[in-house]
Design brief:
By secondary structure, this protein is α+β, with helices and mostly antiparallel strands. It is built from seven helices and five strands.
Length: about 150
């Protein structure tokens, strides 16, 4: 599990999420997803995950239309990622439902998770991502090998 702020910057992560997903505090999930080739290869269903992420980010950015940091992130990604540019230009806004996350880890193999995203009741701009290993997949056994 890991927590992100409104800009999708990782604020905290547990050791398992750091190992499996390679994320650490300070890392921006959206930027890495669209600009790091090593990360790109780990998402076999990127065509589902990418549009979902951009639609969610656009919804967050719309809530803070005057926030320059959102504009900086978008401008950086427009310059660096043709995939992001294509999705951003579609103008899809909203929090689309999360689907199961399938992730190809270099040493653990294909992992499948049911994601849960928790947000504080007080409206704080934080999200806690919790990934539960999918029952009936090799994910549980793979994760047990490392804990």
């Amino acid at each position: 599990m890991y927590a992100v702020d409104r800009y999708w910057d990782v604020l905290a992560t547990n050791a398992l999420a750091a190992y499996v997903f390679g994320i650490e505090p300070g890392h921006n999930c959206l930027v890495t997803f669209f600009t790091d080739e090593g990360t790109a290869r780990r998402y076999p269903f990127r065509d589902v995950a990418g549009p979902m992420m951009v639609a969610q980010f656009r919804a967050h950015a719309a809530r803070y239309a005057d926030d320059a940091r959102f504009r900086e992130i978008v401008e950086d990604l427009l310059d660096r990622s043709a995939e992001f540019r294509t999705l951003w230009d579609r103008h899809v806004v909203g929090v689309t439902p999360h689907v199961d996350l399938v992730y190809d880890h270099p040493s653990l193999g294909r992992l499948s998770f049911a994601p849960t995203v928790l947000t504080p009741a007080d409206g704080a701009d934080l999200r806690l991502f919790v990934y539960i290993p999918k029952a009936g997949t090799p994910t549980e056994q793979a994760l047990r090998r490392i804990v």
